[in-house]
Amino acid sequence: MLAQKPLVLGIGEAHAQRGSEGIRSATHRFTHDLLPILAPTSSDLVLELMIPDGTCKKAERQVREVQKGVVKRQASSNQDEFTKLGHEAKALHVRPHVLRPSCDEFKKIKAAGRDGIAQMLTMIANLSEALTRKILARNAQRKLSKAVVLYGGALHNDIPAVQGREKWTFGPALDKATGGRYVALDLIVPEFIKDSDSWRALPWYPYYDLAKLGKVAVLYKTGPRAFTLIFPAST
After folding, report:
1. Which one in 12, 55, 96, 168 has a CA-CA gap of 20 to 30 Å to 35?
2. pLDDT tens figures, 21-62
């Protein structure tokens, strides 16, 4: 993947779920195993971690209510691990960034009603893309050829975008912005894979057998610049 010299590396993970706290998450593995490899060729890390500015607390509380339907199934340690990832990046001289939603963006989520989660996913994609474009422009001005790494959920980094999820996906826009120097990588912990419609829809699913492949890391190429890395199972 790095041999393709990406200007943007869009990394998406399958988030750890409640009950899996004893298994090393994708975030933990990326932080300790992969980030040190990427750090020398990376300038910035954009995290899918929303930190509002505190100017519209009522709207923020209402958006957190919308989020509960999603995060209630996730491991409670997820946000802390994202924060630790940011600190580790800084220690490795990779500048970390979080997403800064405005009051207007929070109000759009509130106004969307039942479609609030879809509006929030659109906002995450838009903020991630805008911030990355700003970093790319800064790097170009400084004649810095290092990559920008985005880290978040595997919903946003796809290339091409999954039909019906185009508004939630920044991959195609950043691929165009970098002249084809965008690479998408999904990170999967094998114990998190389920026999469900959403998992079965993934292109690598029919080829992965935990019993046969669980002891090794497996890399699938799912498109010209799209990859899925499945970690070894935890011992």
Report:
1. 168
2. 789 999 999 999 999 999 999 999 999 998 877 777 776 776
> How far is it, in rounded angstroms, from Cα 154 to Cα 92?
24
What phi-psi label fits residue 232: left (phi over 0), alpha (psi between -120 and 50 degrees) or beta? beta
Per-residue pLDDT reduced to its tens digit, 196-210: 999 999 999 999 999
Alpha carbon distance 70, 47 (integer Å):
18
Is the model's pLDDT at 72 over the cut of 70? no
User: What is the pLDDT at residue 67?
Assistant: 67
Which string of b and e fits 131-151 if b means at least 16 CB within 10 Å?
A: bbbebbeebeeeeeebbbbbb
Per-residue model confidence as pLDDT tens digits over 147-203: 999 999 998 999 999 999 999 999 999 999 999 999 999 999 999 999 999 999 999
DSSP string for residues in 191-204: GG--SSHHHHTSTT
Q: Residue 100: enclosing H or E segment and its boundaries?
A: none
Residue 232: CB partners within 8 Å, gap ≥ 6? 190, 214, 215, 216, 217
The answer to whether 198 touches 157, Cβ cutoff 8 Å, is no
Residue among 168, 31, 165 at smallest CA distance from 96:
31
